[in-house]
Amino acid sequence: MNALVFDRGLQFRADYPEPRAPAGESVVRVSLAGICGTDLEIALGYMAHSGVPGHEFVGRVTETSNAELRGRRVVGEINAACGRCASCIAGLARHCATRTVLGIVGRDGAFAEYLRLPDANLIPVPDSIPDEAAVFVEPIAAAYEILEQVHLSRDHRIAILGDGRLGAVVALMLKGEKYLPLVVGHHPEKLKRLADLGLATSTDASTTDRFDVVIDCTGQGTGLSRAIAIVKPRGTIILKSTAAEGANINLAPVVVNEITLVGSRCGRFAPALDALASKKIDPLPLIDGSFALKDGLAAFAATANPVNFKILLKP
Ligand SMILES: [Zn+2]
Ligand SMILES: [Zn+2]
Fold first, then answer.
1. How far is the CA of 258 from the centre of ligand 1 (A)?
2. Residue 213 alpha carbon to ligand 1 centre in Å
3. Which of 25, 78, 155, 179 is the most exposed place for a label (fewest CB within 10 A)?
4. pTM across the whole model
5. What is the distance between the alpha carbons of residues 241 and 105, in angstroms, rounded to a whole number?
6. CA distance 126 to 54
7. Which ligand is nearest to the CA of 242?
8. ∠ CA 182-143-148 to the nearest 5 degrees?
9. DSSP result, 172-208
10. Which ligand approaches the C-alpha of residue 95 most closely?
11. Strands 56-63, 25-35: parallel, antiparallel or unpaired by DSSP?
């Protein structure tokens, strides 16, 4: 099959073996896949993943022993857990120590014509949600994880640091849930697009402003320091970025100002699907192009170009 494969470098291959479903797993034909910052890191070799990257997708089940999934249009939770360890039994399968992660850890991903995942990970998509919206379920779910971890109040002052893909999705989620975040970024044309979607934006948070909650979506090692500088005493910083670089950070203000730091990664898909079905969130304005797999390198270059939000692959 056609696939993008990372093995020291990213390359297109037309001869990659098709996945077969072992017991308990199904094969999905990928209709659309989204490229995110994690994929760019994988393509640079930062995550030690070799094989097919890609973890944001929508597709149709083509091979399964599960009658409820046969032929269904699905999205998929990316963490494939063991189901037996203490984390799994406690309901924290996303923290299973021996998990594989679609396109990230030990499991081929979505930048291919076919992928496989455990049946338990696959979730049918309601007909009312088009593929172009369903492909955003994974990052929207990651945005909703914030609401499961931190109690936000409607009168909290909330700043989102970063006007990239992640910041935009977090901002649309919070707006959909009737919060009023301020998106702080460096790219005027992207901030303009977010403002056109009804979001408050700023190119500068180094004012005397202080925020109850600061969400770091910068994807950079400097994000945490910037967040510490603008959060109120007793405020909360939510770290959404998995920045590849290390950062030399003065944590003294975290102690002095009694700041809460929360790391936040993947989330449940159900709230994201509900939000798309009810049109609380419309991610379509974030799409800046779609590419065939054979043009995958150009798609990655477009994703790395800071003028773009979301680039899709169409296997
Ligand atoms: Zn991602
Ligand atoms: Zn487990």
1. 31
2. 23
3. 155
4. 0.94
5. 18
6. 22
7. 1
8. 105
9. HHHHHTT--EEEE-S-HHHHHHHHHTT-EEES---SS
10. 2
11. antiparallel
Residues composing the chain: 315
Separation CA 54–CA 283 (nearest Å): 19
Q: How far is the centre of ligand 2, averaged over its atoms, from the C-alpha of 42 (Å)? A: 24
Rg (CA), the chain: 19
Question: Tell me: the pLDDT tens digits for 122-167?
Answer: 999 999 999 999 999 999 999 999 999 999 999 999 999 999 999 9
3-state secondary structure of 45: coil
Residue 244: predicted pLDDT: 44
Beta bridge partners of 182: 159, 200
Longest Cα–Cα distance in the chain: 60
The single residue listed with the structure tokens 């979607």 is: 197
Measured between alpha carbons, how far is 74 from 309 in angstroms, rounded to an integer?
24
User: What is the number of the ligand closest to the CA of 98?
Assistant: 2
Q: Please name each of the domains of the chain with its CATH number.
A: 3-136+283-313 (3.90.180.10), 143-263 (3.40.50.720)
Ligand nearest, relative to CA of residue 84:
2
**pLDDT tens sequence across 281-293:** 999 999 999 999 9
> How open is the CA angle 11-19-297, to the nearest 5 degrees?
15
Residue type, 186: H
Phi, psi of 207 (to 5 degrees): -85, -165
